[in-house]
Amino acid sequence: MPLRLDADERAWLDGAAGPARRLAMRLIVHAARNARAERLRPITRAHVDGCLYHGPVSVDFARTLADAGARVVVPTTLNVSAIDHLHPDLFRGAARIADGARALRRAYAAMGCRQTWTCAPYQLPDRPAFGEQIAWAESNAIVFANSVLGARTERYGDFIDIAAAITGRVPDAGLHRDEGRHARVLVQVRGVSATERTRDLFFAALGHQVGLAVGGAIPVIEGVDHAAEDDLKALGAAAASSGAVAMFHVAGVTPEAPTVAAALGGRPPERVVRMGPADLAAALRALGGDTDAPLGAVCLGTPHFSVAEFRRLRAALAGRPIDSSVRLYVSTGRDVLAAVAAEGWADDLRAAGVTLVTDTCTYLTPILEPRPGAVMTNSAKWAWYAPGNLGCQVVFASLEACVESAVRGRVCHDPAMRELTGA
Amino acid sequence: MPEVLHAGRGAGAVVVLDAPLSFWGGVDEAEGTVIDVHHPQRGAPLAGRVLVMPAGRGSSSSSSVLAELIRNGHAPAAILLREADPILAMGALVAAELYGRQVPVVVLEPDAYAAAARAARLAVTAPEGDDARLVPLPAP
Questions:
Q1: In chain B, how many domains are there?
Q2: Which CATH number covers residue B27?
Q3: What is the pTM for the complete model shown?
């Protein structure tokens, strides 16, 4: 069946609602034809990733829409920027990038987008409900919305994200449909379980291996009986970095997987993958878990740090300052920072030597002070992308080991690492 | 039958990637070379080449990176995939809408993909629809 548009959609495509809506419809229709969709579907909200500056094309596109009078027709949030708009002095990159970032802020604001500037829109109040049809970009947000919230979004990227916000439509395909959400690969975790001490490492390493094993397929993970939201955030972000995972199920944990069979939609898995201590050890090595190097900085908050993670950070610091030889950066959303500041925690952390970064992230833009030494992180996503983006050496460890290292001024090996892998 | 995700024509030397690649974080935006430190073809130049790779991967910013490469003249001449990648197709579409430059994005069936990967140089002609043609070219 070819794509059928309703009367409104045809009129928008013909330009009846102006050139901006027409361009946005051309993008949606192109995507719908490629997805073999038979119709479009309304959405209730959007999250836009195209507000990150990648070069003149980012600004040309946003201005083309904004100058033509485009307005979003559903509540629309913004992903990260190339700069920290609240703390612009933190940006150490070229002036043309900062200028581009500001031009994008003006264009997306003119279209009616909320200035959220976070890669973790699921931490904002009023997040999507189970079953809600949405259009989210940013790989970690996509995988979280589908897997943890049970909201429905395809793997949207730059350009189509704002096109969906302007039209209120997406192709009726893929993860928007019941049959597109069933797992195809069964991942059986055996011989390892996450304790309180090992949970960072476990979920990040598992996500990394799952991404490598399944590519873009939907897995159902069996053998993990408990996970907090931040654990699932780490798992999803890792799997969407090493692979193209847009949704995962954890049997007995995530909302569309009461059982393995339910997650599989009643069909047998196309593939069964077993994961044990040796696989997790391989993931930890690949992420930089066995690196022994002088320490230059610690980066936390990829994806953006939650209030619960700030609580853990405070507990790990226990009132101690960061060593003067090390910088500790925490990337977070401005809404979470406001909540943390209201508790008095932001002042405490800054007094301890912590640099709080909002609106952007330390792995994608020049924020880190240039200094020798490796960078330690508890984020598989940071560990995956930073060596290419920033050219730095990464040491991967739990949040607690990262903080201990920052306080002592040297890499402190993670006892949890040995506990988890049995090495 | 090949599936044309974005129409266009392009020709050049073939570069074959053995693993999926995310353009964002994986390709230098100014020069068009592979910078993904995890990728087996790290350092491979993509500008002006017929890129043959199994699939895209990861970041939703890859649309922007491809569109930027098309704008600045360092994009692949054509992209041939084994699995559809809507994110790359969207980057090609936006570059066409903004700058009028067409870089074809085509999904091939296994035999055609294997043949493309063996070619040294290819000319890709991909009109709207499903009748894309790949013609091997002699060495320059």
A1: 1
A2: 3.50.30.10
A3: 0.95
